[in-house]
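HOLO CASE FILE
Compound: zinc ion
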Amino acid sequence: MKKIIGVDLGGTTTKFAILNEAGEIEQKWSISTDIEREGINIVPNIIDSINQQLSQSGLSSTDVLGIGMGSPGSVDIDKGTVIGAYNLNWKTLQQVKEQIEAGTSIPFYIDNDANVAALGEQWKGAGEGNANVVFITLGTGVGGGVVAEGKLVHGAGTAGEIGHMNVDPNGYECTCGNVGCLETVASATGVVHLAQDYAEGYAGDSELKGLIDQKQEITAKIVFDQAKKRDPLAKKVVDKFSFYLGLACGNIANILSPNAIVIGGGVSAAGDVLVDGVREYFEKYAFPPVKTSTEIKLAQLGNDAGVIGAGSLVKMSR
Ligand SMILES: [Zn+2]
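Model generated. Tokens follow.
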């Protein structure tokens, strides 16, 4: 059986894995991402690291079916280029595929990081065995990826930008220039924004309110932890968050009828308290047959979703 290499390129760390064709991780390693000098060393460092690991493992380029990679920024999957990945300092067009294929002699495939994580969860995670999976990642921002009938959906280019689904036409301003995008209320910063807003007019007894009034730094984790402890203000905030995300999930499911909507990313570490609330509003807004055909699930692969999904890119290209 041949090997597959998965690469998950991030702003601080680049993660790698050697997988078998069944998607099982055989080796895993990582390097720090050198974003100095407009990220000029990022691709050469990836090439060196792959070549080094292969030779240490007694493998050659012919043992490898392909290299798949998830990248931030705007990815042209056909040309294998990336532009506008600001956390990598990549402002100009990067010829990633050309360089990596020249440097390793291995076929290379690339897609954006949220799409790749969606593929990972669909292949070996919470969506395993399902051909129709929507992935929503709740982190600093909100990203998404859609796998429909076994294929990653790109549309005319940017399908799956679930973070910019409108859930409140009178809502908070978004970095994209619009207002009320899901990202403004369901990202880590969005949850904090909701908490600060709700705290303002809140008169009851609440530990969360106390922390906010004392100008302590609030995080999404603090809000969810307080909700688990039944803090009344935190419960209100989590309920509003659940309403927005549940509404988005209902709308997504009505259009795509996925087997599963998988929720991942740092904020999803809150666990059951998060997914239970989302499910409640999902069931309120989903079209009746969709309520039973679509499951709302927590992601299972954590940090491995990226490298496994990147490996899936190689499998799917064949
Ligand atoms: Zn937006």
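CASE NOTES: The pocket of zinc ion is lined by residues 164, 174, 176, 178, 181, 183 (CB under 6 Å). The chain has two domains: 3-119+310-316, 129-300.
CLOSED: yes
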